[in-house]
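note to self: dont lose this again. the chain is below, predicted strucutre after it. 72 aa total, dont forget to put it in the shared folder this time
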Amino acid sequence: MTEVLRLIGLTQDGAMLPAILVGVVVWMTLTVRQMRGDVEKLSRDHDSMDATLRRVAEDVAYLRGQAERAKT
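---
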């Protein structure tokens, strides 16, 4: 067993390097997944806000048209 540990570098200097590298890879993977989810959610939120603002703009245009007709 000690020979196997020595071969994979767990009993030599720098033994923590594989563990650190695995931790960094896992952290990066989770971070990228989280960022992709956040970007997707922001995209949906922006689409929703766009639709809402378009409806408000239509309402304002309608009301301005009503006000202009009342003036004449």
